[in-house]
Amino acid sequence: MRVIVIGAGLGGLTLAHGLRRAGIDVAVYERDAASGRPQGVSLHVDERGRSALRACLPPAHVAMVEATTGGPREQTLTLSDSDGELAVTDARPSDGVAGRARPGRQVHRPLLKAVLLTDLDDVVRFGAEFTRFEQRADGTVRAWFADGRTDTADILVGADGIGSAVRRRYLPDVRVVDTGRRMIMGATPLRAAVGTGLPGLIGHSPASAHIRGTTMVLAVLRFTESPLTARRRWLPALRRTAAAEVEDYVMWALPVTRESLGAATLSRRARELTAELPPALRTVVGEAWPDMTVELRTGSIPPPEPWPVRPVTLLGDAIHLAPGFGGNLAMQDARHLCEALTEAHRGRLGLLEAIGAYEDTMRRNGFTKAGR
Ligand SMILES: Cc1cc2nc3c(=O)[nH]c(=O)nc-3n(C[C@H](O)[C@H](O)[C@H](O)COP(=O)(O)OP(=O)(O)OC[C@H]3O[C@@H](n4cnc5c(N)ncnc54)[C@H](O)[C@@H]3O)c2cc1C
User: Fold this and answer.
1) Cα of 21 to ligand 1 centre, how many Å?
2) Which residues, in sequence order, are CB contacts of 334 under 8 Å at separation 6+?
3) Which of 59, 119, 125, 277 has the greatest count of CB atoms below 10 A from its CB?
4) Residue 278, Cα to own-chain centre: how many angstroms?
5) How far is the CA of 294 from the centre of ligand 1 (A)?
6) Closest protein CA for atom 16 of ligand 1
């Protein structure tokens, strides 16, 4: 069996590892260059993402990820202003109930991505923008790329994120709705924020402050083990700079609307939005790494009717969007698709039967309101 995956993101790379470990021939085509582009700093990974990584990745890769997560995040705090000082005024369990996040740990996104890319040099082709596909009479699928390249396989997987070109070709009626909501997200070295008292106040828990009309979400990532030490111990093949260029930090986010973003740079807009907040929060935003400040667009995909099963399928943000836990869903999809294709590879399921079973599970997980 041969599988083409479009997109070397969280879902596509998790799938690639799982397929390769199952002895399935896989090629991943990624539009970006190997250096990539900033996609945010940290991810809250819950049991869905962690169990997918454990199921698909080689043990050394899993050990590297586990060694470099932050501490356990079991509650979400509310912060208020008490005479210019921040105070915790509420603590809710992170239990996945009633829209609350599930318990989990923070991972540094660029480090996770570098771990996922480790040992896949012969699988991932960078600078390859997928443009279209064709189902052939013999049941195989041929994919075309912007530079004129083509490749043919038994199955094509669109793991190409929110703007998915595979989805636009395959399910043109499925639409991404722009909710108009945006998030300015950034990160600040922990050493610059220690004096504010904030890291001690919130520990490993995510916290949210609602003060004078501004909402700010914060969390501290303290690596359980130094990434360089963990690399030496678990995954020496990991690109050294991916582990060397990280230190503990405070991650923060400011929910805004499209209209309120304005023309200022993201860093400047973040400083304007927090100008009336207590000094600790102003320091966090003021001392942020400028090149790590990004804008997150929030979209949604209305649940589509089930479509006929073909040797083309989709996973992750390419088919369902979940603000705050989409990465977990993408990795979970990858695991379920890998398990289904492995059954087909071993002759225990037909290929289309395997894809259909995966798609049923993916739709259940990706489109239920209780999925958080
Ligand atoms: C700032 C921010 C914070 C977030 N925080 C969290 C969090 O805490 N927890 C969580 O679970 N989720 C979080 N998410 C969501 C999460 O990042 C996404 O849901 C997740 O990355 C989706 O994974 P994916 O593999 O489906 O797609 P992506 O990771 O987006 O990967 C898609 C890949 O496809 C490539 N591609 C696109 N088009 C083409 C093409 N035509 N040809 C070839 N390649 C192509 C892209 O370059 C990209 O590499 C966050 C997102 C952002 C932006």
Assistant:
1) 23
2) 10, 11, 12, 14, 15, 18, 52, 56, 159, 315, 316
3) 277
4) 31
5) 13
6) 327
**Using CA atoms, how far apart are residues 196 and 187, in angstroms rounded to an integer?**
15
Give the DSSP letter of residue 9.
S
Task: Give all domains of the chain, ordered by start, each with its CATH number.
Answer: 1-58+119-176+301-372 (3.50.50.60), 72-105+177-300 (3.50.50.60)
Ligand 1 centroid distance, CA of 324 (Å): 11
Q: Are 218 and 252 in contact (CB under 8 A)?
A: yes
- Split at pLDDT 50, 70, 90, the class of 38 is low
Query: What residue owns the CA closest to ligand 1's atom 20?
Result: 327
Nearest ligand 1 atom to the CA of 329 is 11
Whole-model pTM?
0.96
Q: What is the pLDDT of residues 98-126, one digit of tens each?
A: 888 899 999 999 999 999 999 999 999 99
Mean pLDDT of the chain: 94
Residue nearest to atom 10 of ligand 1 (CA): 325
Residues 6+ apart with CB under 8 A from 303: 363, 367
> Residue 133: what pLDDT?
98
Q: Ligand 1: which of 113, 151, 160, 167 to mutate, most ligand atoms within 8 Å of CB?
A: 160
The residues lining ligand 1, judged by C-beta closer than 6 Å to any ligand atom, are 6-12, 29-32, 39-40, 43-44, 129-130, 159-161, 163, 165, 185, 294, 296, 316-318, 324-328, 330
Distances (CA, A) of 277 to 37, 78, 83, 217, 260: 31, 15, 11, 13, 18
The answer for residues whose C-beta is within 8 angstroms of residue 267's C-beta and 6 or more apart is 186, 288, 290, 293
pLDDT of res. 202: 96
Distance 140 CA to ligand 1 centre (A): 27
